[in-house]
Amino acid sequence: MRRQYGEIATPDDPPLLALEFRRSDLGPVRRVVAAAAAQAGLFGARLQSFVLAVNEITTNAVLHGGGLGRLRLWWTGQQLVCEVSDSGPGMPDGHVPAEIPPPPEATGGRGLWLTRTLCDRFSLHSNGHGTTVRLATSVERV
């Protein structure tokens, strides 16, 4: 079964950043994304929020999506977009990314909720062959 939440367009231009990562790469991935996002014009709290959101999704990809993830970063209009995909089993049937925070006693489910709150746009595609999450934040380019 395929589940889809939201839609963020695929770029026409080559990505600013494209890489594969494993669990041991999460720290370096955060630093590379932070540097690329800063170069693209994000700063302060918006930069921190974007990097935290990307970290949540990359962590999910390696922990729940088969151990290997792929990341692409690109511009679309006035937004910086990050796509993270994996080749895992996909989201469980009936799972919908939370629009409200999970209850305090929940042992999981905060990553997708947090990502939705930290970014301006969020989309998720999932099926039995993997999950792809796209998140976007507006950037005032000078």
What does this 3D model show about the protein?
It contains three helices and six strands, in the order E-E-H-H-E-E-H-E-E. By secondary structure, it is α+β, with helices and mostly antiparallel strands. The chain has one domain (3-10, 23-138): Histidine kinase-like ATPase, C-terminal domain (Heat Shock Protein 90, 2-Layer Sandwich). It has a six-stranded antiparallel beta sheet, with helices on one face. Strand 3 and strand 4 (79-86) form a beta hairpin. Helix 1 runs antiparallel to helix 2 (44-64) and helix 2 packs antiparallel against helix 3 (110-118). The protein is globular and about 40 Å long. The model has no long low-confidence stretch (mean pLDDT 88).
List keywords for this structure.
3 helices; 6-stranded antiparallel sheet; 31% helix; alpha+beta; Heat Shock Protein 90; globular; 142 residues
Task: Explain the layout of strands and helices.
Elements: E1 3-5, E2 17-21, H1 26-39, H2 44-64, E3 69-76, E4 79-86, H3 110-118, E5 121-127, E6 130-138
Antiparallel strand pairs: 1-5, 2-3, 3-4, 4-6, 5-6
Fraction in beta strands: 25-35%
- CATH architectural name: 2-Layer Sandwich
CATH superfamily: Histidine kinase-like ATPase, C-terminal domain
CATH topology title = Heat Shock Protein 90
Question: Helical content, roughly?
Answer: 25-40%
Please tell me the overall pLDDT.
88
| Largest β-sheet summary | 6 strands, antiparallel
Annotation, overall tally of beta strands: 6
Radius of gyration: 14 Å
